[in-house]
Amino acid sequence: MKKFINTYLEDTKNLLDLAISNHNSDILKIKKEFEKCSKRNKKIIFIGNGGSAATCSHVSVDLTKNAKIRAINFNEADLITCFANDFGYSEWMQKSLEFYADKGDLVVLISTSGKSKNILNCGKYLKKKSIDFITFSGMDRLNLLKKMNTSGINVWVDSKSYNQIEIIHHFILLLIVDMIIGRSVYKA
Asked: Based on CB atoms within 10 Å of each CB, which residue in 3, 62, 104, 151 is the most buried?
């Protein structure tokens, strides 16, 4: 077990170093995009499945409470079950965007695989409506989500490990929150 732990930590550290190195300018751009969105009195919408949904919840709350940038996510059980029942699971997130996204908002789509149908449907809708979006993905370098976002910012993690990709996405987004605040230690 100790060997597994040490290897896992080393692999994750290497992935993080690589992701930060490859996306240093993207991280700075995302920070600026979040701040610009806030200055326009618009909101940031985070969308993801599973572990990525948990990241969406955490980051949207920290942006709102600590960085004073309005952010939301669609992780309420009643919203998910109602919209999935009425519109289908692959469509419920897109329908949520139709109800909640306003012109000028910024959307962050997170899909570890880059091929989640409900996330891809969101990307298609956002392109059609000319709403800016940022993507976070992993797995295949040429995944569908990354390929779809031709004019936006793509943060891609070069790994096949779901948990490690999610850890890196989570880390980068919380790094951006702390960059906006200007420090990593502050009163909660």
From this structure: 62
